[in-house]
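Re: that chain you flagged

S.,

Sorry for the slow reply, it's been a week of failed gels. I finally had a moment to sit down with the sequence you sent. For the record, here it is as I used it:
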Amino acid sequence: MADSDTSQQRRLERRRLFKHTAAAAAGVGFAVSRASAEQAITAGATNGNINQSVAFWCFNAAGDKWSAEKTCQVAKQLGCRSVELIGPEHWDLLKKYGLVCALSPNGMPTAPFIKAFNNPRYHDQVVTLTKKAIDDSSEAGFPSVIAFTGYLYRDTDNPNLGSMSREEAADHCVEGLKRVVGHAEKKGVNVCLEHLNTRDNTHPMKGHPGYHGDNLDEVAEIIRRVDSPNLKLLFDIYHVQVMHGDIQRRLDENKDIIGHVHTAGCPGRGELDDTQEVQYAPIMHKLLDIGYVGYVGQEFIPTRDPLASLRQAVKTCDV
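Prediction finished late last night. Pasting the structure tokens below so you have them in one place:
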């Protein structure tokens, strides 16, 4: 296929995705006021090439602790199409604002990245809750559910029992994920397995020492071993930068399995500004070049005014 034909096909795919998002919101009978639409144009994203999302937990935990409604209002004003990692109890609110939940939580009652698919001790619970999240997302018309490998401890409540080998943990991951992907295929929902960094030990949400899935190549291999079109990679740019760098090459290497993307400044998981080392505009252009048509979630931890920080991030990624 000629380069011009490929570019045209990608533009059409993005247009279809955005049209589908708008149609889904209209189908449930919710409308956005003209004033809100005009405000979105002037306050945030205007190009619309990158389908942007706001991670609720980052702003619910920051400073003035945004409510779900305020987060939806801001997301809409900035031209974002999603608020993600927000529970089903808030999904009617998302629909009120014409938004989707691009990435649904998996319902684990504790930190979901600790007890997960790499440990058969937790399989029954995590499989049950992931299937429930898949059902909820499918019913709401939302695209994806988050998943994690888990920590390497044989028993996370008693680390003295020792750790699994990476090979054993990977085998357990494959076994556990195969218990949910058939259900995901039937429901038309993606399960997105996230790579996390283990190097940063300064904050419980900036790094995850003990996490199994800290090597992007190993996480990608698990996904390919499961071999389901509905198991995807959650490519978190911040975590990949901390562990590996070479982001654009890694996007190329995994373009066939990427299902969701996260942002944050590095180091520190702060704003997408000129104090951090990742240049986000070229990375957004790279996502367009590889034909990525999914969502990019703003998942940084604000260190100053959250609204100004989010507006800056949205504009930075609006290439």
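What I noticed first: The CA atoms of residues 71 and 106 lie 20 Å apart.

Talk soon,
D.
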